[in-house]
Amino acid sequence: MREIAFLAVFLMAVSASAATRKHRVHHTTAKRSSGTSHTVARRASRSRVHRRVTTRTSAALVSHTTTRGIIHSRTRRRRPVYNPWTEPTFADSTAADNLAGEDPVVRKAAVDALGHYNGSVVVADPQSGRILSMVNQKLATTGAYEPCSTVKVMVSFASLKEGVVDPDQKVRIARRSSLDMTRALATSNNAYFAKLGEELGFDRVHHYAQLFGLGERAGLNIEGEEPGTLTDRTPADGVGMMTSFGSGIRVTPLELTSIMSTVANGGTMYYLQHPTTPEAIKEMQPQVKRELDIANLIPSVTPGMMGAVEYGTARRASYHQAETLMGKTGTCTDTTNPGVHLGWFGSFTQVGARKLVVVVLLTGGRGVSGPIASGIAGQVYRNLDSENYFNNINNEIQTPISLLSLP
Question: If you classify domain 104-403 with CATH, what class do you get?
Answer without folding.
Answer: alpha beta
